[in-house]
Task: inverse folding
DNA sequence: GTCGGCCTTGGAGTGCACTCGAAGTCAAGC
DNA sequence: GCTTGACTTCGAGTGCACTCCAAGGCCGAC
């Protein structure tokens, strides 16, 4: 059942030691290209592990981080800022206040942008209403 | 009072005939560069008028369109698609159904994306809550 | 032992949406 | 009549976030 994509893995005993980049990609909805890019660019908490043959091994912890990273990205945080957040987390305990500030700033931005989109969407809805009534008139 | 930025305008009699690109930029929140770019790229309903000296003259109709255009852009519609919408509007009456469909498709996408952002934001809020309680503990 | 398939790296390429620069024109003020 | 400053066009440049490619390595299957 797990014959392909098992290349560099030992799978000696333990209950799943990690996964290939392809699996990680599938589970996170990103592409292997993007996962490598994120690592190269310093967005990962730490370098992903490797097998003896050099293949990446993603752990659940890695995926958890990638998920957080995806949430930040999906809400509009730039790569640059995600990198800053990752750097803080990498430093370890002691800078929680900074991390909190960063996330709160982001949160405020997201709320503002959400409000803006809502406003624009309402105006677009008015336009849609106009076209809809035009269609209704043409339908007679 | 209106001495500068009046360059190409005649201002013979009438109650404001149009405005310069600088004024249009200020009123729409875009830059003159961007306004020119939009026109070049075919996003305007029709080419903006010119003075005898070749300067652009923006009318209220132009600004109304730019506003709509800004709303579409701000809600994530691509330049390419805005261009398609502009092309439909330019064609004149008869394709209201297509325009409606385009806007409704866009609306659906925006709603989906809004929901996604909300979901991600909630997860980020949880994280913020964790840091906040860490801070509270450290505060003692 | 060689083939297929997934992996590696470094670097280059892509698409989008602006954004800027250079060189020139024009009307108004001094 | 010369300077000033906002405008013009065309084309090139920028920043972001991927996205892809070439060349090569490793492993299991045939």
Result:
């Amino acid at each position: 059942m797990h014959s392909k994509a098992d290349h560099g893995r030992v799978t000696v005993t333990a209950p799943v030691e990690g996964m290939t980049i392809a699996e990680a990609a599938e589970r996170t909805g990103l592409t292997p290209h993007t996962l490598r890019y994120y690592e190269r660019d310093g967005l990962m908490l730490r370098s992903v592990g490797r097998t003896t043959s050099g293949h990446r091994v993603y752990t659940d912890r890695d995926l958890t981080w990638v998920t957080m990273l995806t949430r930040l990205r999906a809400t509009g945080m730039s790569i640059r800022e995600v990198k800053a957040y990752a750097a803080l987390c990498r430093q370890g305990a002691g800078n929680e206040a900074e991390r909190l500030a960063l996330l709160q700033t982001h949160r405020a931005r997201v709320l503002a942008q959400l409000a803006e989109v809502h406003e624009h969407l309402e105006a677009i809805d008015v336009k849609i209403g106009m076209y809809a009534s035009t269609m209704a008139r043409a339908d007679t």
